[in-house]
Structures are given as structure tokens and as C-alpha cells.
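User: Run a structure prediction on this.
Assistant: Running it now.
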Amino acid sequence: MRRYCPLFERDIPLTEKLLRRIQSFEGDFPLPDLKKASGDGRAYVAKENGRIISLCLVSHNLGEALFPKSHSEAKLAGLLEKSGCRDEALLAIYIYVDPAYWGKGAGNDLLQYMYSLYPHRSYLAPIGEDKKKAMDFFHRHGFYLICEIPDSLQELGKQSFLFLKRHKKEGLACMDF
């Protein structure tokens, strides 16, 4: 049975193992600061049989999430203006799923859990250009491409697309857990 909860400090070593498993399939990517995300309440995990099978990092500070080196509000404002979602309540999300659980609902279930925690938000998902599975996943869940992040704004190397799922006035459908 899967359990969903905030990332606790005691689970950081298991979560780091999850990220290393993903790196072995997906290639190198910048590892998030799990201790900081855990302490800030911005990290959530799914556990199954004592194993962490997926991780979701959330950020209300979009400048920091999308442009971690410069925290550029000007870059962010330009992208959001271009995409037409400047005045929305936005949340940036990053979802990581253990490759052994790809296609088995682990990402979907964690995303539904996020919807239940943050029901009145629109969601932004920055995705690297070489992450076709991630693009397909978000597209299947109602996200759509709003813009390519121009090379001049790149800070995370391969990150290049921004997907959005808008909050519906009647609310996002959530699963009971």
C-alpha cells in the first residue's frame, strides 16, 4: 500500500537513493537540496513497503524555482506575461519517480496528492528538452506547453520547456487517500 506524506529528515537518505536510481536511467541532473526542501515543507514523497518510490518538490517562489542562480523576478515576469498567466496563483512542481515504478501510477498518485494539498493553484512544470516521458506524463494529466525557455534565460542546463495546468474555478478533481 502506498502512503503519501511530507519528506521527513529521516527519509532523506532513502530519497537520495531514489534520485540516484533515476539518474542511472535518465542521466545526470542537478540534485535538489532535500534537507532545505524538507525543512521548508516543500517536499512530499510516496512510500511503498518502506521504499520511497516518488518525490514531488513544490515551490511558491517561482523566481527561485525556475531561475535558482539569479532568482530573477524580471525573467519570470516576462515568461508569465508571454504565457498569459501572470496573475494566477501558481505553484512550480518537480516530480521524480523511481524507474521501477514508471507506468504503474506512482507519478499520477503523487500528482493527485498534490492537487489535494494545493487545490486552488495552477501548476507549472519545468521540463528538460530531453525528457520526453515527463512531457508525455504532464500532457496526459492536462498540462500544456506554454513556452520554451529561451537559451538566454537558461540556468539549469537542459531545462527548456514550461508546462502549465490551470486551476479550474470548480476546482481540480482529487482522489481520496
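Residues 170-177 have pLDDT under 50 and may be disordered.
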